[in-house]
Amino acid sequence: xxxxxxxxxxxxxxxxxxxxxxxxxxxxxxxxxxxxxxxxxxxxxxxxxxxxxxxxxxxxxxxxxxxxxxxxxxxxxxxxxxxxxxxxxxxxxxxxxxxxxxxxxxxxxxxxxxxxxxxxxxxxxxxxxxxxxxxxxxxxxxxxxxxxxxxxxxxxxxxxxxxxxxxxxxxxxxxxxxxxxxxxxxxxxxxxxxxxxxxxxxxxxxxxxxxxxxxxxxxxxxxxxxxxxxxxxxx
Length: 235
Known about the structure:
Blueprint: E1 6-7, H1 9-22, H2 30-57, H3 62-91, E2 95-101, E3 106-110, E4 116-124, E5 128-137, E6 140-143, E7 147-148, E8 153-158, E9 165-175, E10 178-188, E11 193-198, E12 203-208, E13 212-221, E14 225-234
Parallel strand pairs: 1-12
Antiparallel strand pairs: 2-14, 3-13, 4-5, 4-8, 5-6, 5-7, 9-10, 9-12, 10-11, 13-14
Helix pairs in contact: 2-3
């Protein structure tokens, strides 16, 4: 049975409050971490070069070699620790909200470590038939395969630099013996509206995000999109 209409405004923003508390550093420190890591890498590479040069000249004292090796291992540990901290802060703390809808044969999971969505593609008619997303993940551009079938009309919209989805509404109902997502609509921080795509259903859900952005989606599908949830990241 499909659940009642849901408004997640309070829950979503409470999640962000808890997420910020769980982080040791805010996102504003990412650039500083990157600079620290580059400095340590430079020191590490300098020590490696000295060791190799001394080995070639056969003039490397045992005590000096051991000290350089200890320094090298220490720097390696520091680089690894900062890199782990950097990637954890930047890309691996997106949170899941949802999902809404029914069961489907296949699972999709798009953008769990994404930084920004750049393009959304859908097929929709009576229901939302499919979903595809392009996003940026750790500076790499990723285009996902289609989740769902090819029925319905094709729709596409792009997000420019600095633009992100901060509001989504959808609806759910039974169609051809399946519980399906029948409609999706998106809004961005620049005031743009995309959709609604598909036909309205009797059970609606909304995801308004006050202090963050939608960076991905997850759910289930067969030849239609049966269930959908979102990945959120703080701004």
